[in-house]
Design a protein that fits this description.
- It is a multi-pass membrane protein.
- Its main location: mitochondrion.
- This protein is mostly helical.
- The chain is built from 8 helices and no strands.
- Helix 1 (2-16) packs antiparallel against helix 2 and helix 2 (22-43) packs antiparallel against helix 3.
- Residues 107-115 have low confidence and may be disordered.
Length: 171
């Protein structure tokens, strides 16, 4: 199941390179976030971290959607179904070939003796490893990111002028 989600995630990565409409890009990013949260749910004991991550990404996507609708013109979303289907089939074929080769050459190509997939999965079974990102020395990075976001929020509030109005002017 994890390999299927990884291959779908890789397909979404390839698909976003060929999308040109903002709505389609937003849909791909939301599906990519959902796949990331499901994969993260496999590695953690509780699903709260992946749930909060999904809600955070979804809130960011809503803000980007509002920004996109206020600035972009009203273009119709036109999808070429044949081109999209052929691209998805081609990328799935490449992904399944990659996964098949990964199974065949498990220890030779992708995972050397010092790094083993079973050791990697066993390492994430301990509940203490989820808290390590907030412990010493990583807490300084978290505090720096929180401070950066707060300062950016204050600067953006001071730059924007509420007397001017909305970003998009209606003529």
């Amino acid at each position: 199941m994890l390999k299927l989600m990884l291959s779908l995630s890789m397909t979404m990565n390839f698909l976003i390179l060929f999308s040109f409409h903002p709505l389609f890009m937003t849909l791909i990013i939301i599906m990519q976030t959902l796949m990331l949260c499901l994969i993260l749910n496999f590695f953690s004991l509780s699903m709260w971290f992946s749930y909060i991550l999904f809600l955070t990404f979804l809130g960011g996507m809503l803000i980007l959607f509002i920004y996109m609708t206020s600035l972009s013109s009203n273009n119709k979303l036109s999808l070429n179904i044949y081109k999209l289907t052929s691209f998805i089939l081609f990328s799935l074929l490449i992904n399944f070939f990659f996964l098949y080769k990964m199974d065949m050459n498990y220890s030779m190509i992708f995972f050397q003796d010092s790094f083993n997939l079973q050791n990697f999965l066993i390492m994430y079974e301990y509940p203490k490893n989820l808290n390590m990102m907030y412990n010493n020395p990583n807490f300084m990075i978290t505090i720096m990111m929180i401070s950066y976001l707060l300062i950016t929020l204050i600067i953006i509030i001071n730059i924007s002028n509420p007397k001017i109005g909305a970003l998009r002017h209606l003529y």
